[in-house]
Amino acid sequence: MADTFSRVASTLTYCVIYCPLIHSTAKHEDWKAAKLKEHKCAFEWLWLGFLKYKLPSSMYKKVLVILHDSILPNISNPTPMIDFLTAAYDVGGAISLLALNGLFVLIHQHNLDYPDFYKKLYSLLEPSVFHVKYRARFFHLANLFLSSTHLPVYLVAAFAKRLSAWPSRRHLLPCSCAADEACDDPYLMEEEDTTQCHALESSLWELQTLQKHYHPDVAKAAMAINKPLSQQEDDIRNRMEQDLKQKQSKTVPLEFDPATQLLQGSGGVGVLGLHFSLE
């Protein structure tokens, strides 16, 4: 089934873009802006009809991967894609991450108004996002969305606090602070509403705990907050593409023919029988 959809998608692109080129009798006057507009309308009509079907998961992801650079620029009116992208964005998981590219194009180039966009983006910031295949693309787009100067302070604070307050880092909090009310963090990690999570009332104390991390690279990166922030942003895309793998120890060679008795092996004489005897 997935192969069928893949062939159909390839055929759609080929027929709309390349098939008109095989008409050698076409004159130069035929290739005007009006003609190009007609081809874009046909391309849009074919893709909208194709996306109405329930696609397999693998094909669904492939369409979302190429949507922002191979489909949206080649259609005359990208607004009909809003429903498809918003529905994909609400699915969650890797599907939502892949839908960010298309939504980015519609928001910045076609003035798409999506009131719950940042609320959904905030909910995607979970520890599992570091283990998905498209994590580098996700954080790149999240950085672009959060770089807007029109965002309210509470929203930026909520994202910064959520990124620094992973539940797996709670063990780094000193035990003395557990019983001290002054160390209680007002930030609500489980709250999905950025206006109600009390991020502005908290602080990024987690970064100070990371300065005591056992790994020197992590501790060094956390120490950067003690210095004035530079105007140039650090590029961490290469780090996002790295995977941590546990080193596998080599297998220790064992005896090929295990002994079945203390003094006598399968060959008649065991290893101990060569040097010891009960007689």
From TrEMBL:
Any Gene Ontology biological process: ribosome biogenesis
Gene Ontology CC annotation, any one: small-subunit processome
Ranges where the CCAAT-binding factor domain occurs: 96-164, 180-222
Keyword entries, A-Z: Membrane, Transmembrane, Transmembrane helix
The UniProt record lists the keyword tRNA-binding: no
Transmembrane helix found in the keyword field: yes
Family named by the database record: Belongs to the CBF/MAK21 family.
UniProt protein name: CCAAT-binding factor domain-containing protein
Organism this protein belongs to: Coregonus suidteri
